[in-house]
Design goal:
alpha/beta; Rossmann fold; metal-binding
């Protein structure tokens, strides 16, 4: 097994809630019928019982079509007021020119059907690709420049707490531009919280409630599938940017939440690691993962699977010996946005497959 990727041939029908729930319901029905026996390793008996994985490029739950709007939802109601993550009230009077500071927030804006108002995005905004790549880029979310943002003449600057540095945010506030920053906790409640915050800021709270409910249902269905994994694999997440940045993620991280919800055990957290720590042979020896979980860009930065396994210690782990490596798109896996339910489903499928060969 070189590296697990979602099957792009199965993209069909994950965009709308009724289609997603139908897929999950059918999968659960098959699982209930098939799970009377287990494999010798203690995992679920057959990987064919789970649905085909979706694609990171599949459309998320979206309310973009005006035909789907309930009466009174189509037009933004402004002015709108939100309370930001620091408890400050922010009043928005115009959304004609939105600059989005983070990829997850950009994706939410588009999923709410408000992408036409976005005039600038940061470099982490990769979804939807056909729209975001055409917009002015303001730099990376943690290293933003007030000058570049203000040059776009925004009527609203919106992001999450990862945006910075603080001096840049202070300059935007000082310029008199409404700046709405939401919390981004490492929790499966984060997608719904951020969706509701963005929708409130844009004057479309009802639309936000509908999208949040859809995403919540997708996450719940994915978690139900994950409960069918009876032999959870130990998973080591690696954040890689070439040889310069090589880290593992423990507790209090978004990926820890995703691993646990998908039916795995975070090997770094199990070894006592909290948040991010440098990857080292000692960490690898303590973790002894069954699966290595990486981001697409990270895997590419170290030269693919072969390059990954040249990192000291990794080739000698159960995951390295079996080449059990899962690679997913950065924003798809870690964004905690509209596609989190889909990402969780893909992760569950991959863990389910890995559980067939993991430790008994």
């Amino acid at each position: 097994m070189k590296s697990w990727k979602p099957d792009h041939r199965s993209v069909a029908a994950t965009g709308r809630l009724r289609q997603t729930l139908l897929l999950f319901s059918l999968a659960v029905a098959v699982l209930l019928a098939a799970c009377g026996t287990t494999s010798s390793s203690g995992g679920v008996s057959s990987p064919t019982a789970l649905p085909a994985p979706t694609s990171p490029s599949a459309a998320p739950a979206s309310l973009a079509s005006g035909a789907e709007m309930a009466p009174g939802e189509a037009e933004p109601q402004l002015p709108a007021t939100v309370v930001d993550y620091q408890g400050e009230q922010v009043t928005i009077t115009s959304i004609e020119r939105i600059v989005s500071l983070n990829g997850d927030i950009t994706e939410i804006i588009f999923a709410l059907g408000m992408g036409e108002y976005v005039v600038g995005v940061d470099s982490s905004a990769t979804y939807p690709p056909e729209r975001t790549k055409m917009l002015p880029n303001i730099g990376y979310q943690r290293r933003l420049s007030a000058e570049g943002i203000l040059s776009l003449n925004p009527t609203l600057v919106i992001g999450d707490e990862a945006a910075g540095p603080p001096e840049t945010l202070a300059q935007i506030r000082a310029a008199g531009v409404p700046l709405a920053i939401t919390a981004d906790p490492p929790s499966l409640d984060a997608p719904q919280q951020k969706i509701r915050f963005v929708a409130q800021a844009l004057g479309i709270p009802q639309r936000g409630e509908r999208l949040a409910a859809q995403v919540e249902a997708e996450i719940a269905a994915a978690r139900d599938l994950a409960r069918r994994i009876t032999n959870p694999p130990h998973v080591l997440f690696l954040y890689l940017r070439g040889t310069d940045v090589q880290q593992v993620a423990g507790r209090n991280t978004a990926v820890d939440v995703m691993i646990a919800a998908a039916g795995g055990i975070n090997a770094a957290a199990d070894a006592g690691i909290v948040e991010f720590k440098p990857l080292s042979p000692e960490v690898v020896i303590a973790a002894q993962p069954d699966v290595l979980l990486v981001l697409d860009k990270g895997l590419e930065s170290v030269g693919g699977v072969d390059g990954l396994l040249k990192i000291p210690g990794l080739a000698d782990t159960p995951a390295g010996r079996q080449r059990r490596i899962i690679a997913l798109d950065d924003l798809y896996l870690l964004g905690m946005g509209p596609r989190t339910g889909q990402a969780l489903t893909d992760l569950t499928i991959a863990f389910y497959d890995a559980a067939q060969g993991s430790r008994p």
